[in-house]
Amino acid sequence: MSRLTLSGLTCRLAGRTVVDAVDLTLQPGEFVGLIGPNGAGKTTLLRAALGLLPFTGHSSIAALPVRARARAAAFMPQGREIAWPLTVEDLVALGRVAHPDAAAAADRAATDRAIAALRLDGLRHRPATSLSGGEQARALLARALAQETPLLVTDEPAAALDPAAQIEVMELFRNLAAEGRTILSSLHDLGSAARHCSRLILLEGGRITADGPPEAVLTAKNLARSFGVTAHVERGPHGLIFQILGRITR
Amino acid sequence: MTRPRYCLLLAGLGLLVGLLFLASLLTGPAGIGIGRSLAALFGGGDEVLGLVMREIRLPRAILGLAVGAALGVSGAALQGFLRNPLAEPGLIGTSASAALGAVIAIHTGLAAAFPLALPFAALAGALASVALLLVLAGPRAMTLSLILAGIAISALAGAATSLVLNLSPNPFAANEIVFWMMGSLADRSMLHVWIALPVMALGLAMLLPTAGSLDALTLGEDAGASMGVDLGRLRLLLVGGTAALVGGATAVAGSIGFVGLVAPHVLRRAVGSRPSRLLPASALGGAAMVLGADIAVRLIMPDRDLKLGVLTALVGAPFFLHLIVKTRGDTP
Fold first, then answer.
1. Is A94 touching B (CB cutoff 8 A)?
2. Is the pLDDT of residue B28 over 80?
């Protein structure tokens, strides 16, 4: 049973085709990184797949009723909006809005698990609006985790995080995938994507141009064509090492 | 904010509203003792006194409570929906349109011929504004187009009201219109109560189910929708509920400003900033504010008929400024 199936997903915004006939299937246990240059349509693809934008084609999540969607997939958007100074605990507990029928004890347990997973215990009673950008990102991610869905979709989850927090989030995603959950994240840091993801999807001009294990996607040819860069890729004792070397000038 | 502390806050506010309601019943030009007033209210003792209590003071106190609660709860709901502490019930154009309906009723002489024409005309104005808002903003309206449409409708209704004033046949009609627009609860009857309460109850029934969705919307529309919030349904409930509450309040009391803006603002911190918890708290807070202000207008200048809306704005605006200065340091 796949966690997300897209077929012929096309999304037009203001008369421009931003996502063009995307076919995609995600399986349990996958940690999928969605990569591509700026303006490739990564955010639009994620939002349309979740039914947050009008599109043509099919998405297995968007096809569900709104309430069922919230139990199938959690989403952490790119914009880190927190309108009111809720405490971190209350903010994380918002993820439980998706489970209106759950018992209070189950809600509390899920909230506690999410807070522990992102090491937010010390910040529990602080107003979320008073946190630093990185701490806010962790709190918002914990909110998505507390939703406890089979599929977790995040848009740039590692942006604004310091290196240690970034690695922590990527390892968390890897562990969640190992438990059988499916993670789909748009990522800008190709080195981190190469190290941690089990599969990469390269999006260019709204189309998927490469899809597979990191080594198969991050080829010199793909990197030159879509990002205009050269890179050093090597599989060593510490896993896949990826380092951008320079820009290709044409 | 723990649950027991929240319940304590609601209980405290409820007690305050109860005391103010009682005080409102006991305030009036006919200086009657507490014991005799209450006995008369429940049919004991003096017949004239009973009439005063049941037909004059009781409707005034009930309307004060209901109008305040309506303005408070709709202000809290709109602020939660728009994620903006400056939103107020007037923002979507309902109060201006309700006022326009009432003003037309006064201008055409309909209000003089049939006393109930005024509240019904105001309700019709409120209803028209909602229909116009939903048409203007479109079915998939985002927050911004909703605000813009509301501002346009407010401006249009305001201009039309000015036009009516401009064309008013004589200074007395203009005077009546201006005084009505200042907002008051004086000389209202139980009939007004029976007109306003069902409309407000309908509005409340539409707003209360939005509580959980408003919480989820704290994180934005995308995050909210991905947590199971049906944005289209939420928008309908919110606009419809606010219009019914504000339309009902304006129909019987005229324009009473600042309550819908200040009540949620004052109580936000006390409920831990959760929009869902702010709804009941703000309803009680708004009721306390209007009841208190309506007692004050009777005590400050008993013989000059000080208007309720004038007092709420006079007290509300400086208080709001004070809040802004106080919270400037610690809000993002």
1. yes
2. no
Q: Which of B219, B274, B331 sits opposite A143 (nearest CB)?
A: B219
Query: Could you give the C-alpha distances from B207 to B69, B70, B99, B152, B243, in angstroms and in order?
Result: 12, 10, 22, 24, 10
Q: Is A90 on the interface with B (CB under 8 A)?
A: yes
- Beta strand residue intervals within A129-236, DSSP E: 151-155, 182-186, 199-204, 207-212, 229-236
The number of angstroms, rounded, from the C-alpha of B44 to the middle of its chain's C-alpha atoms is 34
pLDDT class of B134 with cuts at 50, 70, 90? confident
Strands, E assignment, B22-122: none
Q: Which two tokens stand for residue B284?
A: 């009680």
Each domain of chain B, given as residue ranges in start order, spans 3-327
Tell me which CATH code domain B3-327 carries: 1.10.3470.10
The answer to whether the Cβ–Cβ distance between B223 and A71 falls below 8 Å is no
Q: How confident is the model at residue A250 (pLDDT cuts 50, 70, 90)?
A: low
Rg (CA), chain B: 20
Question: Are B227 and A95 a contacting pair at CB < 8 A?
Answer: yes
Domain count, chain A: 1
Tell me which residue range forms the domain holding A110: 4-247
The predicted model scores a pTM of: 0.90
pLDDT, one tens digit per residue, over B47-91 is 777 777 888 899 999 999 999 999 999 999 999 998 888 888 888
**B268 contact residues in A (CB cutoff 8 A):** 84
CATH code of the domain covering residue A114: 3.40.50.300
Q: Give B321's pLDDT tier (boundaries 50, 70, 90).
A: confident
Asked if the C-beta of A52 comes within 8 angstroms of chain B's C-beta atoms, the answer is yes
A-contacting residues in B 211-270 (Cβ below 8 Å): 212-213, 215-220, 222-223, 225-230, 268-269
Q: Is B327 on the interface with A (CB under 8 A)?
A: no
